[in-house]
UniProtKB/TrEMBL annotation:
The keyword Amino-acid biosynthesis does not apply. This is ABC transporter permease. CDD domains: TM_PBP2. Residues 129-344 form the ABC transmembrane type-1 domain. Pfam families: BPD_transp_1. It comes from Pseudodesulfovibrio sediminis.
Length: 365
């Protein structure tokens, strides 16, 4: 296992470089970058633009270039001003040099400042992380706590009324998008049309700091209740069916027949023999499921419930072409994704110690 882990770790660096390079050059080549967006905002904002670029206050009429229609509605600007704008965003350097500089800075986790928010990327990530962590951790845990027992029960009672009834719930949960569940929950329980049991916006209330310890916990979970419920309803179907099918596949194997023939109770057969093998693919996928829920599954939920998490931050950065935020978050997410793959392998060996990755590498090497 040690040799395997060292090999996987050695693969991480070229993989990370490849992902960063591919995204960097594709995004940089796309139109509508930060320079284009800045130029689009120039019309009627001459003083503010020149003050931001030069650091000095100036009158529009005092600058000949601006007098000549630099800030006209057609956005015709002088070459001098264009060079200053490119320098402001670092586009005065060749693309290969920009990429090299970015890699050197990212090696020390220096992601720079946001182009449009006026704050460091690290600060923005720190502000957004608690929201995404809350949604990701609680949603994933609740989904697993519901889906695994439900999937096992459906496998044991395959073809029964219980299986058919819960199958309808699974189909509905799989067919309806998460954001529709979120809107429905708001209408029913957040003052939309009926009840107002839960708050609609934010991770905590404005008076959170003044609450007691128990009050803070209650306030936090009241804010999390609806977003987590929406994500759980929209995410439990796939895991439930995976658990059921995995159990059904194992129940029909010869070792189960042999265990029953030895006189073992059904409970002992299911949870002493079948469970470990059936749960291998389910439990080992937990890290990947968490990463998916953490980074990609909560975007629309964050928007609907006004939660400033990583999903919303990444979406806004992509729309504004805020490259420091885009590439900084991509770097962090890629690192976590690569480590998650290794964690999944470790989970395999934890669930079934018979798996030996070093032996498998030797056979296929």
């Amino acid at each position: 296992m040690t040799t395997y882990l060292l090999q996987r770790l050695s693969y991480m660096i070229p993989t990370l470089l490849g992902i960063m390079a591919l995204n960097f050059f594709i995004i940089q080549a796309a139109p509508g970058g930060p320079v284009d967006q800045f130029i689009a905002k120039l019309s009627g904002e001459g003083d503010m633009v020149m003050e931001r670029i030069t650091g000095q206050s100036s009158e529009v009429n005092a600058n000949p270039a601006l007098d000549e229609g630099v800030l006209s509605s057609s956005h015709n600007i002088s070459p001098e001003l264009l060079r200053e704008i490119k320098k402001l965003y670092g586009f005065d350097k060749p693309i290969w040099e920009r990429f090299t500089i970015m890699l050197k800075e990212y090696a020390t986790f220096d992601f720079g400042n946001s182009f449009f928010k006026g704050r460091s990327v690290v600060g923005l990530l720190q502000d957004s992380l608690p929201v995404s962590m809350s949604l990701g951790i609680w949603s994933t845990l609740v989904i697993y706590l519901i889906s695994i027992p439900l999937g096992i029960r459906k496998a044991i009672r395959h073809g029964s009324r219980f299986d058919a009834a819960t199958g309808i719930a699974v189909v509905v949960g799989n067919a309806i998008p998460v954001f529709l569940f979120a809107i429905l929950l708001i209408m029913l329980f957040a003052g939309g049309n009926y009840l107002k049991w839960f708050p609609l916006r934010g991770l905590v209330s404005p008076n959170f700091e003044t609450l007691s310890f128990l009050g803070k916990i209650t306030d936090y979970f009241r804010h999390m209740a609806l977003p987590i419920t929406a994500m759980v309803i929209g995410g439990f179907a796939t895991l439930t069916m995976l658990t059921k099918n995995s159990f059904l596949d194992e129940i029909g194997k010869l070792y189960v027949v042999a265990a029953r023939a030895k006189g073992l109770t059904e409970k002992k057969v299911l949870y002493g023999h079948v469970f470990r093998n059936a749960m291998l693919i389910v439990i080992s996928g937990f890290p990947s499921a968490f990463i998916h829920m953490f980074f990609t599954g909560s975007l629309l939920v964050e928007v609907i419930f006004s939660l400033n998490g990583l999903g919303l931050l990444g979406f806004e950065a992509a729309m504004q072409r805020d490259y420091p935020v885009m590439f900084g978050t991509l770097y962090i997410f890629t690192l976590m994704g690569l480590f998650t793959k290794i964690l999944s392998d470790l989970t395999y060996t934890f669930v079934d110690p018979r798996i030996d990755f070093d032996h498998q590498e030797a056979l296929h090497g």
